[in-house]
Amino acid sequence: MLDRDGILRTERLVVRPMGSGDFDALLQGLEDPDRIWAEGYPLDESLVSAAMVQERQRASDSVVPVLAEDPWTQYQIILASQDVVVGDLTFLEPPDADRIAMITFGIAPACRGNGYATEMLRALVPWLRARTDVRGIRADTDLVNPTSHQVLRAAGLRVVQDDGDRQLYELRWEHAERIARPRVPRRP
Question: 108 and 86 in contact (C-beta within 8 Å)?
Fold first, then answer.
């Protein structure tokens, strides 16, 4: 689940929202001195997604904390044990009129094959299901990218549209899923 800082944590990963300075640095190719990038990061898609999200945020003219009402941004996927950015996840826009969130994601070539994307998506889906403003997730991928197809299927998404060279995947649910929370003992 996302913590109050907007960070999604898994067993091996920290999925951290990017701030405005992060977007500028990424688009200029400036690595954070405290957090290195894996070989091959950022991907071309990372830069395109960052530019789209940054433009959308600038056009909105609102300063909304990422966690409050607007978590629909770009996140860096960080290998926690090494504090290395291995990829990213992007909500291309807020959920649409049907409350479906469109995502894109990528893992640096040097880090592929370790299950990071699957681990991230398997953690993301329950977080989305717990939200009342979302009732599904969508992603598309090229047919020449079999690994992305495997990742999407492993997270529960299914093909809903086939355009010949691209397939659209989706997972929908009718109602938000209730997450069991640990009971806090009452004080006497």
Answer: yes
**Cβ 89 vs Cβ 120: under 8 Å:** yes
CB 13 within 8 A of CB 116: yes
> Residue 85 pLDDT more than 90?
yes
Say what the pTM is.
0.86
Q: Are strands 158-162 and 13-17 parallel, antiparallel or unpaired?
A: unpaired
143-171 per-position pLDDT tens digit? 999 999 999 999 999 999 999 899 999 99
Q: Is the dihedral of CA 43, 131, 94, 70 positive or negative?
A: negative
Q: With H, G, I as helix, E, B as strand and everything else as coil, classify residue 154.
A: helix
pLDDT for position 175: 62
For residues 89 and 103, the answer to whether their CB atoms sit within 8 Å is yes
Question: 102 with 138: CB under 8 angstroms?
Answer: yes
**Strand-pair category, 36-37 with 84-91:** parallel
